[in-house]
Fold:
Amino acid sequence: MADSVQFPIGYVSMMTGVSAHSLRAWERRYRAVTPTRTTSGHRLYCQEDIDRIALLKQAVDAGHHISHVVGLDPAALESLTTPVKPSFTSPSTKERIGAQPIVSRDVIPSCLQAIEALDGAALHRILRQASLKLSRQALLDTLIIPLMRKVGQRWSEGSLRIMHEHLASNVVHAHLCQMLDYPAPTSAELPRILIAAPAGQWCYLGALAVAVISQDHGWEPVFLGPNLPSEDIAAASATLNPQLIALSVTCRVNDTFMQNELSHLSDLLENGCPLIFGGQASESYRRDIEANGGQVCTTPEDLVQLLH
Structure:
């Protein structure tokens, strides 16, 4: 008879430390467990469900993403007790960046001078010349991404004005689009990644960089631009059936609005597609992102690891 005892979601949340919202997201998106339902629709969990959720929570706390461990059996989950050490730079990336840092160190000051002078033609010329000396990945890792971070930092400090940021963004946007337009292999077998900036997010250069990186690593990127409401992200996912969704959160907007968008998106996504978030403000929403079944991915190296 003890095996037939079932528990409501509030009790399971209290016993495992997993929020009720996360429990629902894990069930809906990953089929972590399949609780029974009362006639009124309320979830009921057996002891086996609770034990499995506790193991999954242990794995997630150790640094593993829920989508990576949800299919493991209890023995495999129990073995995941050693926390995963974040690998921000893979050996291949260290070698790549280590071989070419001087180029970017010399170029970034020249880029900033062109931006301060509002000389878009000079900035475009510098980026084009750098592309002859750097690989596409190194151009992103060691020049474009650090440059735009410096521009954002100087704008926030007041040493650059909005006009400077706009000029830099327009030139870098054009360069990234040119990189994305190169002939890529076409195959129905290519995995597809849906890329956008969610509602309230208007800066999308990071999202474009994700499109370039994913294309270079054998994916088919579908880029849908900035300020995309959760309903449209979910509708696009239902239409395209991607293997990965990547959203860029660059600016910290109204927290309540963003939390509601994340929750709404989690409720709308039904195909279990992994959901990653990048951008400078993504760390600010890490708790809400992870509570809704998403993963924060803040570096190109992290992204490349996910793409393989």
User: Anything to note?
Assistant: The two ends are 47 Å apart (CA to CA). The longest helix spans residues 136-157. Confidence is low (pLDDT under 50) at residues 83-101.
